[in-house]
């Protein structure tokens, strides 16, 4: 079996920053209750590792961040890397909570661009995933922002029009929507905001040649991880597997002459990917140390 270790892998800068903020918050407030409003980054292992620092996480896919906040009544609330609505910040402050924002700078940059477009009198359309916290934060900026979902018919859009996107979307999918919008609305202004970490990981999968199996190590709640798997399938790779960790890897499904590429989402701890590679190589896997994931 030939194993290709796709680069880059591991945490992106936004994830590293969010984790550093969480750790620093615990250092500065050793005795305070700290609760993350949603998953700090979309990986359950990171949530478990934060628990080792006595940092709790509340998450419920059926509830908005504003609704989830009702469950926090004391201490520090930590906002996730995906961005947060101003209404949530205001509600947290009104409850007397200490607010710490770990929003990714790329996400904040997209929000600023959208606010500027609205201030210039433009109608804003946003390509994103319904219910995703990044999209939720953007849509909270103004009720006039229109969500465009992938693989859905293009709805009627108002003009003058500015169109942008969630930072973790598939580059090719987003470009296809941009082209469709440009055909229907030639004067539309386009602001492609897919972050560089997402872009280069997707490009690395696009460039794979003669691969039999692509393994994406990442949480199924991670949009950038699921997009990598989707891109692998669209690229024609015969077998694409999205797994949380090495325990989900069935070696009996592989052949000796397989060419296997291994990549990971931007919020996947490197230790998890290393364990997968060790298992593929028939080597003893190093035990997972949650405290070293942060």
Automatic annotation (TrEMBL):
GO MF annotations in UniProt: 4 iron, 4 sulfur cluster binding; 4-hydroxy-3-methylbut-2-enyl diphosphate reductase activity; metal ion binding
Residues annotated to bind dimethylallyl diphosphate: 42, 82, 132, 222, 224, 267
Entry's EC annotation: 1.17.7.4
Record pathway: Isoprenoid biosynthesis; dimethylallyl diphosphate biosynthesis; dimethylallyl diphosphate from (2E)-4-hydroxy-3-methylbutenyl diphosphate: step 1/1; Isoprenoid biosynthesis; isopentenyl diphosphate biosynthesis via DXP pathway; isopentenyl diphosphate from 1-deoxy-D-xylulose 5-phosphate: step 6/6
GO biological process, one term: terpenoid biosynthetic process
Active-site residues annotated for this sequence: 134 (proton donor)
Binding residues annotated for [4Fe-4S] cluster, in chain numbering: 12, 104, 195
Sequence positions that bind isopentenyl diphosphate: 42, 82, 132, 222, 224, 267
Entry function: Catalyzes the conversion of 1-hydroxy-2-methyl-2-(E)-butenyl 4-diphosphate (HMBPP) into a mixture of isopentenyl diphosphate (IPP) and dimethylallyl diphosphate (DMAPP). Acts in the terminal step of the DOXP/MEP pathway for isoprenoid precursor biosynthesis.
Protein name in UniProt: 4-hydroxy-3-methylbut-2-enyl diphosphate reductase
């Amino acid at each position: 079996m030939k194993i290709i270790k796709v680069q880059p892998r591991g945490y992106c800068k936004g994830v590293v920053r969010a984790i550093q903020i969480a750790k620093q918050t615990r250092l500065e407030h050793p005795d305070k209750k700290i609760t993350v409003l949603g998953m700090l980054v979309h990986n359950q292992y990171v949530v478990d590792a934060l628990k080792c620092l006595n940092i709790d996480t509340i998450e419920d896919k059926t509830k908005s961040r504003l609704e989830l906040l009702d469950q926090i009544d004391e201490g520090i609330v930590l906002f996730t890397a995906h961005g947060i609505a101003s209404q949530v910040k205001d509600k947290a402050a009104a409850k007397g909570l200490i607010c710490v924002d770990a929003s990714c700078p790329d996400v904040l940059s997209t929000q600023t661009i959208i606010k500027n477009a609205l201030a210039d009198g433009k109608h804003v359309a946003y390509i994103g995933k319904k219910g995703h916290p990044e999209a939720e934060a953007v849509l909270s900026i103004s009720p006039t922002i229109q969500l465009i979902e992938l693989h859905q018919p293009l709805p009627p859009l108002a003009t003058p029009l500015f169109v942008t996107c969630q930072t973790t979307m598939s580059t090719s999918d987003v470009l296809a929507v941009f082209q469709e919008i440009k055909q229907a609305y030639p004067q539309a202004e386009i602001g492609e905001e897919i972050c560089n970490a997402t872009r280069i990981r997707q490009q690395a999968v696009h460039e794979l040649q003669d691969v039999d199996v692509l393994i994406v190590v990442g949480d199924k709640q991670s949009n950038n991880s699921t997009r990598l798997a989707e891109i692998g399938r669209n690229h024609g790779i015969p077998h694409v597997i999205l797994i949380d960790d090495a325990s989900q890897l069935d070696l009996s499904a592989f052949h000796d002459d397989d060419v296997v590429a291994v990549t990971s989402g931007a919020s996947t701890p490197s230790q998890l990917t290393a364990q997968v590679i060790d298992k593929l190589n028939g080597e003893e896997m190093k035990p997972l140390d949650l405290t070293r994931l942060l």
